[in-house]
């Protein structure tokens, strides 16, 4: 049974270009009207939206940069003073030294501070000297987030999800060791982070004895008196040993119950103070004082002993050291850097609460920052004091600082400071350190664990400007829930103190609306935007800049809802106002013109879209220069228009020009550079250059993971897009594996019915379909269709696309009546909503015609296909790829009717155009060569057929001699089983055409227009007038 596919629909990407917030009275300089004095003009930034682009039933997309080496965490070395524990060390060595017939797991469990981690580090150090393991991987298992983050850094290459890391380890048949440190959280399912294999070694440190079920365990309790005494003497130094302090050391460690952490702390104190003899008396006083406190009563003997040693050290600290330790205790216990405090000290961020601003500045002044300057020596002296008392440790691998979680707990239990203030101060420092550093995605990512630890404060009153900036950071990281909480709190506070109609309130309502839109809550976004726009019209005037910005954003929301006429109406108003008030060459006018071009494109008015884009580009070249960022954006947009017109070589030329300029001007890691790499990859894919496309996609994905993190929405989109490239290469398992990972993450992070989640679900269904898993495909497609009907309405473009895809699956299952019913609905709706000549309407026409042909209704099929061919020629031109595909489909119908001469004419016309436009090596050209050969065979022109097939095979072998599955095999359709004169050739393509080829026979080739969607910034559709997230000023 034959089913042909035309090229798929291409929906343009949205990119937000912002030019900062607006300044207010008392604030810094900005554009437009004021509000609260504060941040003023924000940083220029670009936020890539989703694009939906599909090619031949697959969805395509990407971002990227040059691949850089990932830096995984190395196992820390034990402290130089490590002493004793020989019995347990020997036990671990014996366990991991046995003949390995299965995976070995050893669990060190015991109280916090008993020395479990140091014991593990010592074992690793000794094992490495003996070359016991091929490699050692260190994982911070404090919680699921930290474990997931560290795992992702292990796997080489681009697929560095935690799942990919585990799969990589499972395929790495060397004798490796994984160390899971601090797996104390009882909610953590540590087993989910074990590689799925029966070999390898795992060492776990934990306070949770329940983890012993996973393997052999050893309890780490208090040290032997001899070992504890030796440890203390080693910490104090050689002089104590020479002075024969052994007896005194023994008395001290007995008083400390020989707890390793308490002994270590005592050694730090004695070493810093030089008072060995007086320590025992001081300790007893400190302990007794602690025991009288209500908040300490009820603590265990262990906690009391440890707390008393810390209390002694804490009381000896200078005020600045005490303050820094308190702030460290609010952050994540690892990865605390000097950079955070330096950037905060130099920050220009001005808070709404002047008193709190003064207090935070006073805190930073004690730590090395004063009047927007930074003295690193002061900070170094403070952390040196904390290190001297063993209260913090420095990671020598990255120079960051770590605090033992028990020290954090002790500090929060015993400090007499206002912990609420310290927590708010820590949060302010995080926000200030990120101010105007948002382009440094790698740095912003290092703040995430600290923000997560402080996130309970998001539900409490926070300074207005701090909230706005934290919301923006959360937005950059794709943490929409946190963004919504923060902007929601800002809006409520501004309504309370400024009123519902104050410009600052309206601006942050606008920001909240944009957050709703990011979450796929388009109705909520629209409702809020309408309120903002109506208020701005009444209070500021219809032509005020803020009003025009809101009008443009509402138009964008209409566009994603498929309400293109409503979007166009608003955008025309914005453009006319901009022309009249600012002039035709003003940047805002050019932004508006570009936005209308985007809407024209969605309406299928590609010539109108191109005309406007050329006008914008010429103006920008003249006014800004050839390499201004806005000019490059316009060049990229024009390239995208060329792409959709089938002018792929023109598109490639422009995209390479933009990519090279951005690499040179912005750097290889800049988001715009990554967008350009993505666009070029898409054009390569259109040209059938999938290896080139895959190489760019891998680099893009690697960059996104490194810059944004593994679970950022953009990273997930790009992971998904790489899966689509794998699908085009017939790497079905690889594609499915990545798509499943992406879908599960999106369900968890964005929600089951978020637009991105539904796109992934639909594309996974497509992968199931081409693998012959039709029931699985149908199940997912029904879910997507029902969700879109409920959320978007029955006539939304995405809903109709889902309906068309389900119809395609029905046709694969032979349910032609069900397929016809859905395709008629889709075609009628598209004709009414989009017009008879919109590209999507013509695609639906071809699909229904194909179903008619499969039903043997060749006259009905021919009538629709003739209409489609004529419309394509008229609208897109005679040589557009969509036109050529329509000609091909009509030719197949002629073949079914036995009209070989008519079919030959169409095939020859299409083939000549494809050779000239696409080149001989393009998959579509190769398909057409074999289809024409098939016609020759039915006309008994065997020598011509043989020559044509041989030419196609020669080209294919030249392209990729090592390929297991040729491009011909990938694309050629399974033709009807027609009787052919003569014996069937041994040529596998001929066998395939004649129905005798069995490879992948469960996957019938169907060449039908599929309306799946794709992620990323394909085509870089630049919504230039949209300001993105504005700061409240």
TrEMBL record:
It holds the Pfam family TPR_10. Transmembrane segments: none annotated. GO terms for molecular function: ADP binding. This is TPR-like protein. Residues 16-41 are annotated as: Disordered. NCBIfam families: FxSxx_TPR (NF040586). Residues 20-41 have a biased composition (Gly residues). It comes from the Eukaryota.
